Amino acid sequence: MASTSTYSSGTQIQIRFVTKQEKYSVPDTPFAVPCSIASDELNALLKELLNETSIDDSHKSVLFDFAISNVLLRQPLDKHVSEVGLSTENVIDIEYFEKFPSPEPEDCLMHDDWVSSVHVKGNWILSGCYDNNVYLWTKKGKHILTIPGHTGAVKSVAWVSQNDTIASFVSASHDQTAMLWEWNTGSNSVDCIHVCRGHERGLESIAVDQNAERFATGGWDSLLKVWSASLHRTDDNSLEESSNKKSKKTCSKSQTRTPLLTLKGHKEAISSVQWKTSSQLVTSSWDHTLKIWDVEYGSVATEISGNKTFFDCHCGPKTGYLITASADRTIRLYDPKSADGTLIKSSFLSHSEWVQTVRWSSSEENLFISGAYDKHVKLWDTRNCKVALYELLGHDEKVFCSDWSDAKYIVSGGADNTLRMYRTNKISQISDKKYDNDMV
Fold first, then answer.
1. Three-state DSSP state, 371
2. What pTM was estimated for this model as a whole?
3. Which residue among 28, 86, 266, 281 sits deepest, i.e. has the most Cβ atoms within 10 Å of its Cβ?
């Protein structure tokens, strides 16, 4: 047991260190620390314990964060314990885990107009732009293709599938269409296989289901539509159409695809669409509601009402919690499993203008990012709703879109015509050498 004499003056509290990261575990024996101890002193104390118990030195370059009752410690221990409603007479369990490092600017990918959408998958980045084009990049920032075809601003893009030779993706535009594309990675050529028609006004959002079999679209006609994501279905009652001159490089001929399903329920524009499960869709709308749809039954399973327009919504891949971006500058976290799905678990108020985009981390269940008209991208931890963990600097205009490819890369785009990339260097991730060897 490490000596605690350095920390033993004054009124004391009994604490016990606990962690879910087994490689950093220490004995869970309670011991006394001063009431006024804070994160820096806890880090020093924990390092002493790890020096005595660890079989390697992997912990020496790690900084830890601490949480009590699932709230990050950001003040002296006694004040924190009082705020979360615990008694200083009892042993306080302090959970510790690797501190998430500050993301650093990695690259800036220039576009010819506002960047409205982005999706990262594997080694590739898709971006949609107000110049009516889709752009394809490597995750190292190399430009691969500029893809014309739409006649209006591209508002949303999403990967469908990827393999060694062929990839497919979809795009949604203000020209009232979605397009299903096939990319031959060997020849670096793209063809528009299907033009999806059925919406009566411009599209705002597109999302592909977990099985890459269907995608959904929503837009200004307030309709939610579900489509087949298959490139070469034989049962399409579709017409072959020639492309216009602008898109001849990518679409010599394509087929018109009609929706599998049209769902009505929203009263105003649908701002975002996401698959919650293979049979459930989540939508946000300008009509101040979130809806969870049962696709199999074609009906609304849950409706959540808000006070302002919802601009975006994202479902946590690990928790199922919903985070929302809205016109009152507040990010809210909902638990759809609560009674009537109306429970707001937390509110995050730090942006000074409309919040346009929110995205959960795909690997860290408590972390998400947000982007707003105030030009800021912020990284949040749900265990601290008072202030963001980090502000990601770089944009000098409104932020419209964001994505989180893994724990290592964050991307965001906006009205400054840039797609900005940020990189973190978390200790537990794969080494840079292995990562770079995996890149194209």
1. strand
2. 0.88
3. 281
